[in-house]
User: Fold these one by one.
Assistant:
Number 1:
Amino acid sequence: MVNHDGGTNNNLLSLYGIDASAKVKIQQIILDNHKTISWNKLYSQNHWIYRKKLAEEIHTLIWIATKQQKIKPVKTCSIVLEAYKTRTIDPDNICAKLYIDGLKESKIIIDDTPQYIYSVVTKSIKAKEDCLKIVIVEPI
């Protein structure tokens, strides 16, 4: 979390694989009651139109959330996706691409290339309710 003086919580940054001495700005997008999309779900339907429709739904959800939660555009960043689930999934099964493309379409990030996104971390956490938290860590 960012302190009011611009400092950061070093333990939080190191959990996200970010240099703990870095000065960063952190923004969080919370998708309450959202069942995080897994790669298994994405590819369970062979027809491309199903995947396209699902991607469009996620992109719209991200666009609405960024507007409602007043998320500001960033130039470069690292992104952490924390999937809180009643039934956990493997962290490498979290389909981060759908959500990151939603951030790009919402103009929160410029592009999803390594020039603009330094790292993507996915975490799966057991919880009482499904929720997805997208953490955007921007160097300042």
Number 2:
Amino acid sequence: MPDSRRNLDATRRVVRDTAVATTHPARRDAELVNLERLAWFLDSSVALPGGFRIGADSLIGLIPGIGDAAGALVSAYIMAQGFRLGATPSVFLRMGMNVALDLIVGAIPVIGDLFDMAFRANRRNVELLAAYSTDDRRTTARSRLLLIAVVFGVLVAAALLVWSLLSLFALVWRSIVV
């Protein structure tokens, strides 16, 4: 097979696999429906008294050590589908932030489990993908703004931590020297 034909086939394959959102709206919508079902199962499938709902992710998260990691793996599948559907890097990073927050806070005993039941990262990510498929510019802009705010907040928190440690060190140094 000539190189030019091989390259053309590879290009078609890449376009077909990564640009589902722009070339096949029906396929994209069907994939979003499947992701919504998975997110519902993970975050809202079990009814509790009082009308509150939790999902399989919350129940698996109760297993110490591996529960939250297992939930994050399933959440990574939703992220991978978002990438395959053509989500922009800022939307993809926002989805990753949701999963990371769910994983990190969810690892805290009891409080993390309660947070996991209320936060519903999988539903958030599928809603983000649905919003992206209907209004990609607005969703991308909002995702960028949120990412900038988070980076700024982390930098401010790091600066405050460094300042606090330096102040504490200076206080201890003065008490030793005097």
